[in-house]
């Protein structure tokens, strides 16, 4: 390597080091820090953020808005929504017994929200969903309703937003849910992992139904009485069989057989 090449190489190296240091010095001295010290600090997520699909409640009545129509479950491309329902014998309406979403496989595609014709689902912005055991990522009906309270409104629900518009319910600050309605959602998310075999506490009407089902399952069915037509020939067959046996022994005796 000639002297000229050595000087040129040294110049380029020194220049690149000076450029890097200049950028570092400028960022350090003249720009505000953008680091967020999580979990003490939490950054605001953009309004289009998709955290978890949650269920909304009509705050005027306190009733959940889901009608168990199954449209969301059919729209889900990875089949992670489980819905069980029964029909109320008096009102003839569907009553939701179970609504669960397996968040370990949900891909946050928003299809379920778009498919819902009753504006019951919304993609929440909650992102602190980590659990040690993936089984605990199954969010049950009560969980989804509780998380959805802060996206619920006491006002008359308006028409669904057009595709090109940002849906208004994404901005939780615009809903009328109060702090009491929200019920310590952050504390709820920070709870310890649920035990295996966890089952959410059933609402009173479901508890009554469950008790009835268990009672029906424990009552053993009585053995069915034999039809008279079957019983009679059997009773008649016995006396008929005895003479036949006697006749058989008589025949054998006559033939000199034992
Ligand atoms: S966001 Fe997508 S993957 Fe997740 S439950 Fe809804 S439809 Fe299924
Ligand atoms: S589409 Fe909406 S109303 Fe129908 S079952 Fe799903 S969440 Fe409930």
Mind sketching the topology for me?
Layout: H1 3-30, E1 52-55, E2 57-58, E3 63-64, H2 71-75, E4 81-87, E5 94-102, H3 111-115, E6 121-124, E7 138-139, H4 141-148, H5 179-182, H6 185-189, H7 204-218, H8 228-254
Antiparallel strand pairs: 1-6, 2-3, 4-5, 5-7
One iron/sulfur cluster (SF4) is lined by residues 66-72, 83, 115-116, 118, 120-121.
Written description of the protein model:
The protein starts with a helix and ends with a helix. The protein has a domain at 52-192: Alpha-Beta Plaits, CATH 3.30.70. It has helices at 3-30, 71-75, 111-115, 141-148, 179-182, 185-189, 204-218, 228-254, and strands at residues 52-55, 57-58, 63-64, 81-87, 94-102, 121-124, 138-139. It is built from eight helices and seven strands; from the N terminus they run αβββαββαββααααα. β2 (57-58) and β3 (63-64) form a beta hairpin. By secondary structure, it is α+β, with helices and mostly antiparallel strands. The strands form three sheets. Strands 4-5-7 form a three-stranded antiparallel β-sheet. The chain has a two-stranded antiparallel sheet with strand order 1-6. Strands 2-3 form a two-stranded antiparallel sheet. Helices cover 38% and strands 12% of the residues. It binds iron/sulfur cluster (2 copies). One iron/sulfur cluster (SF4) is lined by residues 53, 75-76, 78, 80-81, 101, 106-112. One iron/sulfur cluster is lined by residues 53, 75-76, 78, 80-81, 101, 106-112.
């Amino acid at each position: 390597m000639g002297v000229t090449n050595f000087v040129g190489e040294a110049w380029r190296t020194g220049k690149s080091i000076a450029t890097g240091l200049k950028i570092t010095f400028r960022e350090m001295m003249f720009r505000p820090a953008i680091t967020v010290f999580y979990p003490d600090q939490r950054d605001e997520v953009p309004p289009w953020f998709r955290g978890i699909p949650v269920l909304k409640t009509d705050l005027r009545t306190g009733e959940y808005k889901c009608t168990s129509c199954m449209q969301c479950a059919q729209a889900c491309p990875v089949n992670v929504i489980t819905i069980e329902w029964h029909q109320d014998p008096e009102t003839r309406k569907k009553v939701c017994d179970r609504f669960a979403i397996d968040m370990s496989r949900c891909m946050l595609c928003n299809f379920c929200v778009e498919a819902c014709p009753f504006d019951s689902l919304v993609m929440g912005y909650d992102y602190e969903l980590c659990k040690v055991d993936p089984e605990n990522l199954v969010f049950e009906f009560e969980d989804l309703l509780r998380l959805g309270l802060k996206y619920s409104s006491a006002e008359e629900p308006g028409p669904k937003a057009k595709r090109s518009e940002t849906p208004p319910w994404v901005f939780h600050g615009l809903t009328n849910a109060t702090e009491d309605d929200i019920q310590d959602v952050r504390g709820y998310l920070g709870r310890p992992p649920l035990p295996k075999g966890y089952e959410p506490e059933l609402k009173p009407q479901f508890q009554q139904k469950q008790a009835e089902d268990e009672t029906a399952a424990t009552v053993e069915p009585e053995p069915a009485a034999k039809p008279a037509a079957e019983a009679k020939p059997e009773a008649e067959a016995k006396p008929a069989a005895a003479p036949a046996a006697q006749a058989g022994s008589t025949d054998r005796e006559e033939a000199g057989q034992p």
